[in-house]
Amino acid sequence: MVGIIRIPHDIMGNTPEHVASERVVAGTPMQTVANAYSDAGNAFHCGIWEGEVGAWRVSYAEHEFCHLLAGCVRLIGDDASETTLRAGDSFVIPAGFEGIWEVLEPARKLYAVYEPKPDDGHALG
């Protein structure tokens, strides 16, 4: 029988790690991930992420749902779109998004990530 898996909002992640230097745009951002669940096919993951002030380049192959628990972030698309999100906001970053992830205030989010595999019928065209 499959059981329900709770995702506590107060779980602590691994030791904070620097964002890869080749992706950093501003600051010396650190991030921590506490992955709470991954499916057997390793395509779906969820947990808690924390990030410190700074900005870095992102390129999403996965779809990500986020609920910001604390802090403030700004997503700047390569198309010049700009979205600022604050604690309490929920949002989706679709696969194919490219741009800059900027943490304006130390942030903590609940995430659920789905990365389509080429053979599952949901891959990007």
Overall mean pLDDT: 92
Strands, count: 9
Report the portion of residues in β strands: over 45%
Question: Could you name the CATH class?
Answer: Mainly Beta
N-to-C order of helices and strands: EEEEEEEEE
Query: Spans of 5+ residues with little confidence (pLDDT < 50)?
Result: none
CATH architecture: Sandwich
Number of helices: 0
Shape: globular
Number of folding domains? 1
CATH homology superfamily: Jelly Rolls
- SS-based class: mainly beta
* Rg calc: 15 Å
Largest sheet: 9 strands, antiparallel
Give your account of this protein's structure.
- The structure is a single chain.
- By secondary structure, the protein is mostly beta strands.
- Helices cover 0% and strands 55% of the residues.
- Strands 1, 2, 3, 4, 5, 6, 7, 8 and 9 form a nine-stranded antiparallel sheet that branches.
- A hairpin with a 5-residue loop joins β3 (30-38) and β4.
- The radius of gyration is 15 Å and the shape is globular.
- It holds the Pfam family Cupin_3.
- InterPro entries: RmlC-like_jellyroll, RmlC_Cupin_sf, UGlyAH_Cupin_dom.
- This is Cupin superfamily protein.
- It comes from Pseudoxanthomonas sacheonensis.
